[in-house]
Amino acid sequence: YFIEPNQLEEHQAIITGDDARHITKVMRGKPGDKLIVSDGVSREALTEISEIEASQVTVSILEWLPMDHEPKVSVTIAQSLPKGDKMELVIQKCTEIGAAVFVPFVSERTIVQYDAKKEGKRLERWRKIAKEAAEQSHRNKVPEITESKSWKELLASFEDYDLVCYCYEKEQGLQLRDVVKPFADKLKADPSIDPCVLVIVGPEGGFTTGESEAAEAAGAKSVGLGKRILRAETAGMLALTCILYETEE
Ligand code: SAM
């Protein structure tokens, strides 16, 4: 369970809210049961339930655990907002695989239009999905989900990354593996680098030629993901998997 840093003390931790309800109602937790709590930043512990109240569970720290389940490469998935609940699928699956950040964005052919009124609720739901997926796959950190960006804002953020991969199904030349392999070799040669990679995935209708040119001009590598056209929600999962496959120890 991920809890607020100030609720994780030296000898005990207090779990409240939805997590406490989950432990009592769904897991039917009782004193003596073991569970792992993390502040999602720097501390994680194996604990034992010592006290259960209606809306609060107190656990005693048994052992501090190493936080070594995060990938070396921090991968940000920038996803042009897909239709329906597809973004939820992207967040859930890419969190399990190991994404660090999600950036929803609006491009020319994005079908779902940005609605500031709905943004707060939607973000809250996405963050809950990321937290639950991170807990179930035993991540040490819950991926961050930013507010939706415009295409321009996304382009302006390229300089924050060591590598920007722009997934373009019309790309005839460069494939993702051609870019990731040398990147992984560079990391092996210099383990002191703390690498950040941005993966950009387009909407159901793909990117326009103008967007493609702008991405390359801003420093992105336009890459293909094989000879098949993937659904908008599948492309990020595949790209993330390939990057982590090449760079994980
Ligand atoms: N029409 C399908 C749909 O409704 O989901 C396919 C959409 S595809 C155009 C959506 C995005 O996935 C593209 O903009 C691109 O970023 C990525 N993509 C899909 N297949 C790809 C491939 N073979 N190589 C590179 N990127 C790909």
From TrEMBL:
<keyword id="KW-0489">Methyltransferase</keyword>
<dbReference type="InterPro" id="IPR046886">
    <property type="entry name" value="RsmE_MTase_dom"/>
</dbReference>
<dbReference type="InterPro" id="IPR006700">
    <property type="entry name" value="RsmE"/>
</dbReference>
<dbReference type="GO" id="GO:0032259">
    <property type="term" value="P:methylation"/>
</dbReference>
<keyword id="KW-0949">S-adenosyl-L-methionine</keyword>
<dbReference type="InterPro" id="IPR029026">
    <property type="entry name" value="tRNA_m1G_MTases_N"/>
</dbReference>
<dbReference type="InterPro" id="IPR015947">
    <property type="entry name" value="PUA-like_sf"/>
</dbReference>
<comment type="function">
    <text>Specifically methylates the N3 position of the uracil ring of uridine 1498 (m3U1498) in 16S rRNA. Acts on the fully assembled 30S ribosomal subunit.</text>
</comment>
<dbReference type="Pfam" id="PF04452">
    <property type="entry name" value="Methyltrans_RNA"/>
</dbReference>
<keyword id="KW-0698">rRNA processing</keyword>
<dbReference type="GO" id="GO:0008168">
    <property type="term" value="F:methyltransferase activity"/>
</dbReference>
<dbReference type="InterPro" id="IPR046887">
    <property type="entry name" value="RsmE_PUA-like"/>
</dbReference>
<keyword id="KW-0963">Cytoplasm</keyword>
<dbReference type="Pfam" id="PF20260">
    <property type="entry name" value="PUA_4"/>
</dbReference>
<dbReference type="InterPro" id="IPR029028">
    <property type="entry name" value="Alpha/beta_knot_MTases"/>
</dbReference>
<feature type="domain" description="Ribosomal RNA small subunit methyltransferase E methyltransferase">
    <location>
        <begin position="70"/>
        <end position="243"/>
    </location>
</feature>
<feature type="domain" description="Ribosomal RNA small subunit methyltransferase E PUA-like">
    <location>
        <begin position="15"/>
        <end position="62"/>
    </location>
</feature>
<comment type="similarity">
    <text>Belongs to the RNA methyltransferase RsmE family.</text>
</comment>
<keyword id="KW-0808">Transferase</keyword>
<protein>
    <recommendedName>
        <fullName>Ribosomal RNA small subunit methyltransferase E</fullName>
        <ecNumber>2.1.1.193</ecNumber>
    </recommendedName>
</protein>
